[in-house]
Amino acid sequence: MRFLARINILPRWVILALDASILFLSMVFAYFVRFNFDLTRLIPEHVLGASLSYTVGGILVMNYTKTYVGIVRHTGFQDGFNVFKTILINFLFFFLLYLVKGEYLDANMIPPVSVLIIASLAAFFALLFYRLFVKQTFMYLKQGTDTANLRPTIIYGAGESGMVALEAAKRDVKSKLNVVAFLDDDPKKEGKNIDGKRIYRGIHALEDLVEELGVQDLIISVKDLSIARKNEILDTCLRLNIKVSKVLPVDQWINGDLNAGALQEIRIEDLLSREEIVLDKHEIAYYIKEKVVLVTGAAGSIGSELCRQIAFYKPSLLILLDAAESPLFDIQQEFKERYPSIAIKTVLADVRNRKRLNEIFKDNRPQLVFHAAAYKHVPLMEHYPEESIHTNVLGTKNMADLSAFYQVEKFVFVSTDKAVNPTNVMGATKRAAEMYVQSFNEYLETNHTKFHTRFITTRFGNVLGSNGSVVPLFKKQLANGGPLTVTHPDITRYFMTIPEACQLVLEAGIMGNGGEVYVFDMGSPVKIVDLAKRMIELSGKKVGEDIEIQFTGLREGEKLYEELLNDHERVQITHHPKIMIAQVSPNSYHKVRNKIELFAELIEKNNEYDMVRHLKVLVPEFISNSSRFETLDRVN
Length: 636
Known about the structure:
single chain; 636 residues; alpha/beta; Rossmann fold; 3 domains; nine-stranded mixed beta sheet; seven-stranded mixed beta sheet; disordered N terminus
């Protein structure tokens, strides 16, 4: 029977002919049943006439319901509903004919109501049965007759999502999954069956099932499963050497159909992210809809996701500004394809070029500015402090000054937890930029009561998957067979996914009245060595045996742990549980501005020690660590 696996999709006329044949035979069968298979009571002209008319009527209805259009091997609920609709319409049509039949209608062409009911029921079950039979046959042939090569699989979650996972597993041909049971925490479901598969209660049953059924895979189908529960399941599966996958959300499936793309292995991002963030979308939409929005650093990991989320709220114009040509081109192409109804403008420009920025503001008059452009790689910026100062400090000043001059409504500055008690040039430059926008906002509030731009700062930690972050680095090292490099066994970091970080930036930006420094609930810090171990385990390897972990020592400017607040800052709660306001000590605008403007002269002199020394004067809490600039702290 393996030749069936190579059969192409049958033409529509063949399906229509099969369906018509079933209708005809169903009517003949109905007459036999109605008269108890007594051939002497059957009138051939009645049977033949009624069967032909019922078949012709059915064909006409099928032309409307299009039951023959679907691919039989992929029959689903909608196909079954179309069959039901076809039989029902055909039944009602002939029932009405039976009621009004007279001299213009041949009685031989219209079956009695009892026969019509039997024929309709028989036709419905026959049409549906043969479709499901063909579907199951093709699935069987795809998987192969050798069940020894199939991987016994358990689905965690025995609800509707479990049925989706079951269908996805059947179609995941490459991995050859064979669902043998379900797991669920609901005691009411224990002992019941789904599609002939028994439901067991709780993850504690998994160990017995490994011995009993030889389970090798587990699919998590529950959409809103807590992170703690996911980790508990994963720990159990890793201990039992079981591979873990999840069902992707429906909108991520390829072509909206169930196929191998509906399943995805559990990633480290799934275990580090937190519960879904609930935003005030109406309030955000009110501020963004029909407005001109400018995003700097729009081609970066944070900036590009900000643009995607802003596009959802339909601004009148979305300006994507970045100095990186190729990434900017890529994001431009993506937006043309994904958001054709949104007016976008890609601008190749550097935030350090004040004259060019002035032209952009003058021509486009943005109403909201999200400033995400920055140099952010700590070791690299430690080697090139002038670049970090030029972009992160002077570039931010350019954007802030022009936003105020052109009366932008709100300016949202994307900062970092590395600005808190900085130990490196990058963090110190971001803190200097924070000081400028915050003091500028206070100055405008005091001296421009009628209208002024409101400056808001958002501060958060590392984002998973961003350019240069540790997770993509570990993935590359894993792909190359290791080792995974960690700077120090005790180093910890806060983590947040890119989408949730950008959601909080939007929420904080909209709720801000000006001058606030918003800090985000980053959850608990994660030891990088534990992160490396978990990624190795997720890849199916063993730490120390298959993949080694090497400690390389702290890099220049790097510290063991990050902070969201310095020693003198406290937080104020807001209406959003994940967003707080840091009570930051105010700074004099004129003093901060004068010190920042001095950087332009120091950059011209090109003496990095003078630049960093001045940065330490501006940001007194900046104490270098594992850096050549530690000598400046000893001198001071």
